[in-house]
């Protein structure tokens, strides 16, 4: 795919720089023009789980591709080692593109990577991506805000650094808002129970979108009292995103995206839980 040449744009990737680039939630057509231009000029692509193969195909044939993706309880490279890898590549004067599913700064650990690089004197550019909450919910036909349903939206992660689910439950259980939970499917029963225990009605609409924005997208909708069992019965797996709030009740009325069978030329991104699980990625 040729990258359009806009009348005004910044230079391509520079030697010794690291570019933290959001690859979006799965559909390669949601990738940004800036991201595509950087990938097309990179010496090295350090990429996560869930980065669509057509995005990687934008890189030069001679570019080095290094997979550092994370799945639940299965990290191909620990985060500290990823940080050091980026630093070493930049010090070797490489044009480094760090591709992350979703958006680098929304549950994508982009801030952690950038901190180390900036402290070491490395130039860094951040290219936002379509985060899972925005992209996946839109492809499911679930608006995150709606004047009659939700005046605010909250993003939360179901997987904390210590592996615990210790969130601000009173804040998440407030009325008239939408809650989007990344990386929460393995703890879904606990999450639903905590939201009910802190004030949300058990009948609150809730849904899980599996592999959102891809041809394998699947949507399971229920309420807080029954969602965890429905997801279990349906065999839903990561990457999946959880949405809670009355806006979920607009599904399937606003559903527009029709997933299709997997095209032979466009394989799915790596299976697993990364930036979007909705990670991080996001």
Automatic annotation (TrEMBL):
InterPro entries: 4pyrrol_Mease, 4pyrrol_Methylase_sf, 4pyrrole_Mease_sub1, 4pyrrole_Mease_sub2, CobA/CysG_C, Siro_Cobalamin_biosynth, Uropor_MeTrfase_CS. The keyword Nucleotide-binding does not apply. SUPFAM superfamilies: Tetrapyrrole methylase. One of its GO terms (molecular function) is uroporphyrin-III C-methyltransferase activity. Its EC number is 2.1.1.107. It comes from the Bacteria. It holds the Pfam family TP_methylase. Residues 18-227 form the Tetrapyrrole methylase domain. Gene3D superfamilies: Cobalt-precorrin-4 Transmethylase, Domain 1, Methyltransferase, Cobalt-precorrin-4 Transmethylase, Domain 2. One of its GO terms (biological process) is cobalamin biosynthetic process. Keywords: Cobalamin biosynthesis, Methyltransferase, Porphyrin biosynthesis, S-adenosyl-L-methionine, Transferase. Pathway: Porphyrin-containing compound metabolism; siroheme biosynthesis; precorrin-2 from uroporphyrinogen III: step 1/1; Cofactor biosynthesis; adenosylcobalamin biosynthesis; precorrin-2 from uroporphyrinogen III: step 1/1. NCBIfam families: cobA_cysG_Cterm, PRK06136.1. PANTHER family: S-ADENOSYL-L-METHIONINE-DEPENDENT UROPORPHYRINOGEN III METHYLTRANSFERASE, CHLOROPLASTIC, SIROHEME SYNTHASE-RELATED. Belongs to the precorrin methyltransferase family. This is uroporphyrinogen-III C-methyltransferase. It comes from Thauera aminoaromatica S2.
